[in-house]
Each structure stands twice: as C-alpha cells, then as structure tokens.
Amino acid sequence: MKVYKLKHKSTGLFYTPSKGYGNLSTKGKIYSTKPNIKWTSIIRIIIKTGTKDKLNEKQQKLIDYFNIKKIGTKDYYWIDEYFETKPEDWEIIEL
C-alpha cells in the first residue's frame, strides 16, 4: 500500500491540517491516497515565544524562510498568521 506526505521543499517540513498549531510540522500527516497540492496554497504559521525562550529548529526554519520579524524591539515572537505558498514550493513524497 502506498502512502504519501506533502513536503515543503525549502524548509523540509511537512504539511499537516491543524486547528491550533499551524500547518507545517516535522512529522506531517500521512495520506493513504495521493494528496492535492492545492491544499497548501495558504498555510497557517503560529510561533509564540517568551523573551527567554530559545527557538527550536522548526521555528527557526519558519522565521528564516518566511522572513518573520520580532515584535518591535522586543526579543520574542508572537505570530499567528496565514501565508500564501506556490505549488512549486511543495512536493508529494511517497513513503
């Protein structure tokens, strides 16, 4: 049986439908049928850190690729936004 994932080429993260954690994750969702790349046209990114929190690898990739800025002169991120992506930024991988 073939199974699939949607991978964001630039960050190496995977698409996952989510209601509260954003749409890019290190594991992603596994699909039993070939997924549609159009699902990834708009993705939600959520990053919420305090002033003393260290960014994890996933957060740093998202900040670098989507050019996310810190809040004012503060030393933390508090973002819950939607970003458009192009279909060519994604690939369907077979596991």
Written overview of the protein:
The chain has one helix and six strands. It is mainly beta. The strands form three sheets. The chain has a two-stranded antiparallel ribbon with strand order 1-6. A two-stranded antiparallel sheet has the order 2-3. The longest helix is centred in the middle third of the chain and has 10 residues, at 57-66. The model has no long low-confidence stretch (mean pLDDT 92).
Tag the structure with descriptive keywords.
single chain, 95 residues, mainly beta, two-stranded antiparallel ribbon, 1 helix, 11% helix, elongated
Summarize the structure.
The chain is mainly β and 95 residues long. Helix content is 11%, strand content 29%. The chain has one domain.
Please bin the fraction of helical residues.
10-25%
Rg, rounded, reads: 14 Å
Q: Strand tally, please?
A: 6
How would a textbook summarize the main sheet? 2 strands, antiparallel
Our count of helices gives 1
How many domain units? Answer: 1
Spatial arrangement of strands, main beta sheet:
1-6
SS-based structural class? mainly beta
**Unreliable spans:** none
Q: Strand content of the residues, in percent?
A: 25-35%
